[in-house]
Amino acid sequence: MIEITFRPMSVFQSDITLCHSEVVWGETHFSLHLFTATPTEEMNGAGNLMDFLDEPLPDVGTYEDFHTIDWLREKSRDTDRHRKITNRSKESIWEFVKSLLDAWSGWVVMLLIGLLSGTLAGVIDLAVDWMTDLKEGVCLSAFWYSHEQCCWTSNETTFADRDKCPQWQKWAELMTGHTESAGAYVLNYFLYVLWALFFSFLAVSLVRVFAPYACGSGIPEIKTILSGFIIRGYLGKWTLLIKTVTLVLAVSSGLSLGKEGPLVHVACCCGNLFCSLFSKYSKNEGKRREVLSAAAAAGVSVAFGAPIGGVLFSLEEVSYYFPLKTLWRSFFAALVAAFTLRSINPFGNNRLVLFYVEYHTPWYMAELVPFILLGVFGGLWGTLFIRGNIAWCRRRKTTQLGKYPVLEVIVVTGITAILAFPNPYTRRSTSELISELFNDCGALESSQLCDYINNPNMSRPEDDIPDRPAGPGVYMALWQLALALIFKIVITIFTFGMKIPSGLFIPSMAVGAIAGRIVGIAVEQMAYHHHDWIIFKNWCRPGADCVTPGLYAMVGAAACLGGVTRMTVSLVVIMFELTGGLEYIVPLMAAAVTSKWVADAFGKEGIYEAHIRLNGYPYLDQDEFTHRTLATDVMRPRRNEPPLSVLTQDSTTVEDVETLIKETDYNGFPVVVSRESERLIGFVQRRDLILAIKNARQKQDGVVSNSVVYFTEDAPQLPASNPQPLKLRRILNLSPFTVTDHTPMETVVDIFRKLGLRQCLVTRSGRLLGIITKKDVLRHMAQMMNQDPESIMFN
Predict the structure, then answer these.
(1) Strands, sheet with 647-648, edge to edge from the N-terminal-most edge strand
(2) Residue 434 contacts by C-beta under 8 Å, 6 or more apart in sequence?
(3) What is the largest CA-CA distance in the chain?
(4) Does this model's pTM top 0.90?
(5) Of the candidates 41, 50, 118, 243, which lies 20 to 30 Å from 351 by C-alpha distance?
(6) In sequence order, which residues have a C-beta less than 8 Å from that of residue 545 and are 6 or more positions away?
C-alpha cells in the first residue's frame, strides 16, 4: 500500500475539501489523497504557510557560555555541509574551485598555527633569556643582549673566563665600581629581589586587569574545552596577547614555574584565532576542536623541540576526539612550528631547546636498579605535589586568601627570590639548571659539578673521560643541590595555580634532575671506589667511563614529570627527542612506568585531572564505571519532584513556550505527541527556541503570543479566529539519543564518553519517562565515589 498526499499551495475550488480514490495495480495498492484548502484555512494562513527557517538563521545551533556541545549534531551538520559542497562542485568551475579551497583550508590553518606558535615561542625564549639576566646585570654595548650574547660579541673574552667580559657588568659594578665586596653582594642581592618583585607584580596586574583567563597552566581548561565544553574568551585574542607577555614576565621573575604548559594554551589561542577566518571551523564547534587538538601538539613541539612527542601528547593527554586526519594535521602543525623555531634559533646552539644533550657511554643492566628507584621517587613526589597543591588551591578558593591574588604573588615571589639568590643552582633560570644537570662532564666543562680530580697520566679522547674521584667542588655542589631540591619541592607546591601563567613541566623536571644527578654521582663514586664489588665487577673496570650522572638526571626528570602528569608514551618520546639517542629509551620507559605505578597506588588522578575536579569542570575521564545502577536511578525527575517540562507537537502556544523558558533554566525540552500519551517525537534546544521565536516575531507577520507552535510537517486544524501558527520543525532534533529505564549506568556512561552527548532521554515502550544530562552523570559518579555531587558547578 503506497500512500501519496498532495497539498497544493493555491486553491481554486473552495467547496471541495477531500477527494479520495484507490487504485489497485497488480498486488500494489495506491491510496491518493488530494487535500485542498478551505476558505477558512486560507484566511488563517495555514494553507500557504511557509517555514521561515528554510534559510538558516544566525546563531541557531550555537551554544551559550559554560555549556557542553552536542558532538552528534556538530558531526551531522558538517556532513550536510560537505554533501552540499560536493553536489555544488559539479555545477560550475567556480564551485569546484571553492570545494578545493574548502578541502585545503584545514592544511592552511595548520600552516598558520605552526608559523605563529613557532614565532611566539622563539620571541618568548629570547625575551626570557634577556630579562632573566637583567636581574643580575646589563650589557653595556647593547642593553638588549643577554649575558651570553653580550660575551659572544666581545673580542676580549678568554676561553677560561668565557662567562666574564668587560661589556657585561653586574648592577653593583655598574653603580659602585666594586665587584667582590660585601656591599656589592648585598646590592646585587637587593636588586635581584627588586627586579623579581617588579616582573611578577607587572604580570599579575596585567592578568587581573586585561585577561583573567591568562593565568595558570591552561592545560586543565584545554582538556575540558576539547571534551566539548564552551568557555568563551578562554582562547580569545586578549588572552593570547596577555598570556604571551605575562609568561615572559612570570618566568623571568625566577618563580618556580615553566613556560611549557602555557605554550600549549598560547598555541591553542593561535588555533582559535585562525579558526575564525574559515566558516568551516568558526561555525562548527566539533571541527574547531579538531584544530585545537593539532594546536596543542604544536605547542608541545615548540616547548620541548619534540614534534613527535607533541603529537603523542595531544593524543594521550589532552584530546577527547582524535580522528586519523587530525593525527596527520597535528603532525604537520608540529613540524611547521618546530621548523619555525629552529629558524629563529633562540638559544644559539642550532637546537630547539636549551637542554639538548648527547651521551657517549652506554648504560648497563645493573643500572636499572637506580633507574627504577628514581621512578619510585618520581611517583612519591608526584603524589606529594598533587595532594599538597590541591589542598593549597582549595584553601585559596574557600578562604580570604583568594581575594588577594596580587599580594599572594608578591609574597611568594619575595620568598622565592630571597631564598634562591644565595644558592647558585636556584638563582639561575630553571631551564639553565636542567641543562647543566643533564650535561656530561667533558674536558672543557667548567661547572662545579665537573670538579673531579684528574689523573695526570690520563690520555683519552675528550668524549670518553674515565670515572674519577670527586673533588671538593663536586661535594660542595652536592650540598647545594640537596638544598635546592628541598627548596624546589616546597616552593613549587605554593607557586602552581597562582594568578599568573605558570607551567609545571620544567619545575617537575628540575626536581627529578636534581635527585637524579645526586644519585648518579653517588653511583659513579661507588663504582670508582668499589669496582671490585660484584655489581660493578662485570661491567666497570678501573679506568673506564662506566657511569654517566647526566643520564641519571634525565631519567629522574622523566620520572618526576610522569609522577605529576601520569604521562607515559608521550613523555618517553619527548625525553628521547631531547637527547637524540635511541639507546636510552629503556631506562626512560622503566622510570616512567614505575613512577606511574607508584603514583597510581596513591590516587588515579594526575595534576590536570585533579584541577579539573577542583574547578568543577564537566569532564568525563576514562576510568571504568563499575557500580551496578540503572538509568532509572539517575534520570530526572526523581520521585517527589515536579514532572518533566515538555512541549507538545501541535498544541503549545508561543506564550506557553516563553513562560516555560522564563520559569526554567533547562538547556532543552523534549517534544511529545500529547501530555496524556507522552509519546516522544524529538528534542529542541532552549537557545534555538529563543532565537526562532524572536526572529519569527520580526520576520513573519501575524505571530503573536496566542499563536500555536507546532513541530509537525503539516499545520494543525485551527478555528478561523486563531492567529497564524508558527512552524518550528526545522529546529527539532527528530533523532534524540534514547535509552530504556533499565539500561545499566555503565553503558550510559560509556555512551556519554564515546559519543560526547549533552543529554540522553529515558523511555519505556516509546513513552518518555525522564532525561539524563552530562551533569547528572558526573554527579552520580561523584556520589558513587563518596565525593560531593554538588562540586560539579557548571551546566
Answers:
(1) 647-648, 668-672, 680-685
(2) 354, 355, 506, 509, 510, 513, 553, 557
(3) 121
(4) no
(5) 243
(6) 360, 361, 464, 465, 466, 467
